[in-house]
Amino acid sequence: MSQLFEQIQPYKNLLKNFTSLSVLQLTNYLFPIIVLPYVVRILGPDKYGLVQFAAAFNAYFLLLCDYSFGLTGTRLISQHRNDSQKLSEIFSSIIFIKIIFYIITFLLLVILIYSIERFHEEWLVYLFSSGMVLGSVLSPLWYFQGIEQMKYITMLQVASRTIATIFIFILIQTNSDYLILVIINSSSQLAIGLSGLIVCILKFKIQISFPGSDRIMKLLKEGWNIFLSSISINVYTTSNTFVLGLFASDTVVGYYAAADKIRIAFQGMQSTLSLSVFPFVSKLVKESYSAFINFNRKLLKISVGSGLIVSLILFIYADDLVNIILGKSFSHSTDLLRIISVLPILISFSNVFGIQTMLPLGYDKSFNKIIGFAALVHIILLLIFVPHYLADGVAYTVVITESIVTSFMFVYLRYKKINLFS
Do residues 187 and 160 lie in contact, with contact meaning Cβ atoms separated by under 8 Å? Predict the structure, then answer.
């Protein structure tokens, strides 16, 4: 028993962080899955597709506002977690940068809404969707990840999502209530962000100060390569719904978005594992390279095993999942779900190769080059396939791109003589 305790002790914070993140991710994916069958039946493919298209459109602004702090901010906080003054400096600088970026993107959003007819027709949907961007800007999730104290943001998230879910069932009654759905989602995200800031200031004694220009430029420079990678990743992940909406109707967008929602929900455990492990390996690699490699070898087995199970479930039970969760009006989503069912197993490989191995080792530029090349290929394939095959074209393109990313990362690690399969 004592030997077991000694083996677990080094991973104590990791296990606590993983547990909190599991609950957090559960709220991110479980609550949407709870309301998804209700919402898609009330709104229908048309209005549901509009809401998802607006969210995908605002995701570009969220990408800019986040810059790369979801990873670089977490890494910095993890490395300086014992220096309270340094933590306050990093915290203040990141929040300041993100708020400035939000102001810029919001002004750009307003200009686009009034300049482009596609957006002007439903301008309130796009405007209120921006609330989710602001909520994410204010949310210090990266700070809690870095100090491996996820229980606070988890409690806030669970409370907010629960209230939002109750309001959705009460207020969404007809397909004309789609704007109310957007307002509820944005309000929920804003509540989480503001509450998280308050916890950081009161509980963790973060001192907010105006950052100097040197600190701002240093953070922007340090995160530049990962930011470019984030843009590239966005091209072949969250932007697919938006690109599809440029060529297809809101109904077709609804078919694809709904199928992808199911895939993301089932893939939630992988996301939890990734978020909880990254600050741990970022710290571990500075302490012991051999321990870092051995840990990632174990991580690869767990990640790939879970990814394979999820992929098989999605492929085998696609018909049942679509009928139960989405309803008969979304029958076109079945084939789409089967196509993208291979993504969990592919992403399980690329996550360990890239996020958990290349970035902690400082191979940011190489990581960026791989992702950038994949994004370029993705854009070319989208322009070829989507006009002719619409949602099917997007699904096949995503699978091809993820395969390229996984293969190139594997080859790069072998080139660096890093073997995670021993």
Answer: no
